[in-house]
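Entry — protein

Goal — fold tokens:
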Amino acid sequence: MGDLSHLFQPIKIRNLELKNRVVMSPMVTNYATPEGAVTQRLIDYLVARAWGGVGLIEVEATYVRPDGRGFSSELGIYKDELIPGLRQLTDLVHQGKARVAVQLIHAGRQTTSVVTGSQPVAPSSLADPSSGETPHALTVDEIHEVQEAFVQAARRAKEAGFDAIDLHGAHGYLIGEFLSPFSNRRTDEYGGNLEGRARFALEIVHQTRKMVGDDYPIIFRISGDEYVPGGLDLAQTKAIARLLQDAGVDCLSVSAGNYASPGMLIVPPMEVERAPFVPLAKGIKEAVSIPVIAAARLHDPRIAAQVIAEGSADMVAEGRSLLTDPGWVEKAQRGELDEIKPCISCNEACINYLLLDQPISCLVNPGCGREREFAITPVQQPKNVVVVGGGPGGLEASRVLAERGHHVTLFEEDKHLGGEFVVAAQAPRKEEVTDALRWQIRQVYKSGVNVRLGEHATAEMILMLKPDAVVVATGSRPKVPKLRGLKRENTIIARDVLMGQAVPGRRVAVAGGGAVGMETAEILSLGNKDITLLEMTDAVGADMTPDRRYWVLDHIAEHDVGVVTNATISGLSNGNLQIAHDGHEESIGPFDHVILALGYDPDKGLATELQGKVPELYSIGDSVQVRSAVEAIREGAEVARKI
């Protein structure tokens, strides 16, 4: 297992003693009210992580002025009326034996007038790289007003019982915008050279220190490298770190990137190697004497402990791993690593929900943000429940049903569990999906589910078991269109290629440019094949998250995969595809094989047969409508709590 003891040693930030080295990253949840007030949902979410053993919880980026809000239900600290709710939050987190800080933010240009009701502000009038909206360049007087908003927010934080504050100077928000030559083109005292660009942040630190006193800890989060042309790099941030330390900052939290960085690097997905920003933290630690926090893709406790043991950082920030498992710390401390529900850095329901301005969730843990509602409650009268389909939704339903005390039989027609999770894990750089699948399977067997593999469950078989309830999680079937010549030619279903059950020839056409088609082309490009990807709309990967789409597009471009959009296939003859492309007919090929990745249809047959024949009947996941694993797992969790 490795020595994890370094994670659990106490440490001080100024005079604040933490019981261990694990910090919960400040992650916007969108759980607050539209006015930025604390809700019971937000409290439940944070308290669960406190009782899970975290040393320091950093409450999400909390806006200091209404024009600094980045999301519609972000937490606010811009007026005294919000203090009582924040005090309730800190009191309850403290009962969980955790310390709690709050991150103070002004979004700067990285918001929109739709969210704030006013034009965004920034050091310079440069359009935001994500929204395209051009901000108002702050005057010197306006700069002083924003600085005062940070200072007053710090006062409120202390009055509300927070043990520390964190000034958000990373990820291209307002403080970071002033620090970076990428976004600060001013020529006055708040721009120009590094010292000028740092003035805005340093003055906030000086003024905040006067407000909160000498003993109150100030943390500062910084992007060690922005990974954009003309942005901050490690050499600059090391110099800034020394200035911040001299100004009175007590701890530096090191992240990376901004919203213009490639492939959502600020929340690195599974495509990015583990612990990608640790070298940045190490570099900054070498430049200062105050504690340094390392962040990003440190989900494995062994890697996190190694970062501290090697002296690369003093603490580790766990973000998405705590969304997935609030008990990450306690389980790691007990050495129960197999019991930790693993974050797979998919970003499906956390950052990608947030970018849609929705409340965050988690693919693997649908109870994230619904802790009270999703608590496991034992049943008074156990029922005989049959679950059909051992994909992610069926596994979640089976596990929760069994943990509640029901007698569960799970049918899976394949000789292995996992369903589409198994298929998804075959694509390059998606191997971590297997971690979640292994956890689900272990928990299903551990909870006592009667698993029947290799059995195609018919309505007759199910009715013979006299079930009180049936959960249909049969998923979906690949679409095979009725096209001229299709049955006579060498066509293969994409799923069979991904699973290694079919090996196409050298010249290949992939019909369908959605996620399955893109990933099929990507995996085939690793071999010596000539690949053409065809999509009927004007863009490939439309059903993928933006970060995943970026990395797959980058890969297939690097491997010279041909992409033809606005192409509708009308037939296939002698290996040639007849297509309508940009308003005219043409023939392309010849191809040794055509791989079909044209989507899926729900498999509703069993549910239709059982309708009216069992006391309770539920359908979940793709058997209702083809979507992602997020919906399948969530629906499995919800249904299992209804029965």
